[in-house]
Design brief:
Blueprint lengths: L4 E4 L6 H4 L20 E2 L7 E2 L3 E4 L3 E10 L2 H11 L1 E7 L4 E6 L4 H13 L6 E8 L7 E2 L25 H5 L2 H4 L9 E6 L16 E4 L4 E4 L8 E2 L6 E2 L3 H10 L15 E6 L18 H13 L4 E4 L1 E2 L5 H12 L3 E5 L18 E6 L17 E4 L3 E4 L15 E5 L1 H18 L5 H10 L20 H5 L9 E9 L10 E6 L2 E7 L16 E6 L2 E8 L17 E9 L4 E8 L3 E7 L5 E9 L4 E5 L8 E3 L7 E7 L10 E6 L4 E9 L2 E10 L3 E4 L6 H4 L14 E2 L1
Amino acid sequence: MTKRIFVFALIGLAFILAGCGTLFGPSPRTPVVDSIPLTPVDPSTLPVVEMLPVRIDAEYIEGEIIVGYADEGALAQAVSLVGGRVKHRTPQINAALVELTGMKVPEALGRIAWAVRRGELKGIRYAEPNYLRDLIEPFPSTNLEVMGTVLPKVYDPGADLRPYQWGLDLVRAEEAWNYATGQGIIVAVVDTGVDGEHPDLLGQVISEWYDAWNLEWVDGLDSSWGPTQSPVTGRWYDGSHGTHVAGIIAAKKDAVGITGLAPNVQILSIRIFSPDAVQDPDWGYYYVGDYNAAVGIIEAVDYEARVLNNSWGGKGYSQTIKAAIDYALMNGAIFVAAMGNSYLDEISYPAGYPGVIAVGATDPQDKKVDFSTMGGHISVGAPGDRVLSCVPRWMTQAGTGLPLLYDYWSGTSMATPHVSALAAMVLERHPTATPYQVKRVIEQTAKDIEAPGFDQRTGYGRIDAASAVQTTVLPGEGASVAVFAVTKSSGFPVPYVDITLRKNGIDRYFGQTDFEGFEYGFFPTWGYGFFLEIEPGTYEVIVGGEDTTLYWWSWMRVANRVTAKKTVTLNPGLNTPITLEVNTTLQVTLSWTEPVDLDLAILEYDPVNDTYVWSTPKTGALWGEFSQDDQDGGSETYTLKDIHWHYDIYYLGIVAYGNSSTARVTVVQNGVTENYGPYEVTGGYLYPSWGWPDWWENTPHPFFGVTGPGGPVVY
């Protein structure tokens, strides 16, 4: 069920700030409007605007929101404002799940954001929906010509299947085992659950697991779940994915069945896809929601898991998930995530967050697998094509009813656990290594298999376990940068804008600010856009940024505008603060040729009456200047003054008088020119910019426009 919501609340970025905000295309389920919605208006008296429409293009759990807070008092105030109650709180990252008792999610978010923007609610970091995420299953492999066929041996519980694990041969596992096997390291498999009673995993899996749906620990070895049919779509789903992942990491080395790359680690199951979590079965793949998934990550860290495997993801930036990952990194845990199976060059999360080891898939010929997602945030590649591993005992052979036990699957889901296993082996050798140092050991020892050096297809290359575990001297520490985006006119923080770190012409790291104008960071970096455990060196720091791709889809590419840039050199072991000033200039021109009267309208803040009003050449401007009032064809221009209200909210509109006309709008914002139209407008109507046919394609949505169709999926 797709929720298309227009909320009449003034939340998010103003037009001039929207130039450095988040961009994404409309969902393919709802086409772009092909006509402008008409707003009847008396041109002599334009309406006062107290709330603005906000569009949410994501699936979420109705009746819940997530609130990031600075203190308990601020949280209590926010909860009171929306008439809800705190359902659960996570003090490690100061986030709370708030249950709404009558108010809808969009209205609740609008109320909180409105209060924050007006300065009536202080100490709230962010408020966001508890997003639903979809799941994409890996590819079951049927093309086995490279390694031969294992049938019927795969069904023999006593067969030695090690010869069929081509990936272990390629990464030189046998040699690596002379130095490390992952002894003493806990690896959390954040996934669909693990069958810890599988013959190859018995004794490898910790006998309790975390149920992220019910937010509780459960005794037992088997957290997987069998086939479950969606009551809406009729499709069948199951929890087999995590078992396949766990086998690649930790299957026993006993000449029976397969062998994991790190056969002496202990697996901790964190189940974030649950048969009980049927929130929206027409959309979500039994995902527990962003809040619960973040709690699962934190629980794994507090359990002292040193490595977290995340073979899932999607195109949605979550402040809550980002905070949980920061918590993991700051507590010395390595966060490994799958790049995705989209075939494209794009960003998905959690792979796209700073400090994460993002993993692509390679094949037996040491090439990138065609489906493996590419991008500047990739770290390394690993075997992910036709990988043999465990499947739960309840999966059976077709026609016999006997346990299947093993199967070949393909995907970056299968590549990622190879890297998680190797991270555990490196930690066994170097217990005090930081997450960045472990990441760099894996990158520096990888075999360069495609373009020389780093490339966006396979990162630094395909992992080499033998070389990695023989590293004797650790590389230097990682760097951190604290980015603060402010308006040039007032120094006021800019909320919900994208931050990109570009190195050697490649966009490497991505972030987003929160309500207070900072990317969400965990103490002690509170109050800054924080990029933790990243590669030292010289970067171009961009607020917004052309061709940065935080949010774009296979069917429509969009690019953020460049609004501020600065070069910074980051040194190992140091946190470097940097401030970027944005929101400096805005000039808007309305032009038309027919002999009719049109007016350019700008929505400006009226501090005397504490509201927002439409200004035109006929009324005069509050924070800018209009050119002449053309009434017989021509053009009108609005230029923002150097000093203006620090909320910086300026939406556009066209007021039509008399006969129909064709209008065009040119916007020059911080030196970047954008053209809109032509639009057919009819006399007697106000045409606000959020109704223009190409507005939602070319500009950031005002607020919470952070995801398109789908979300984190199992790769």
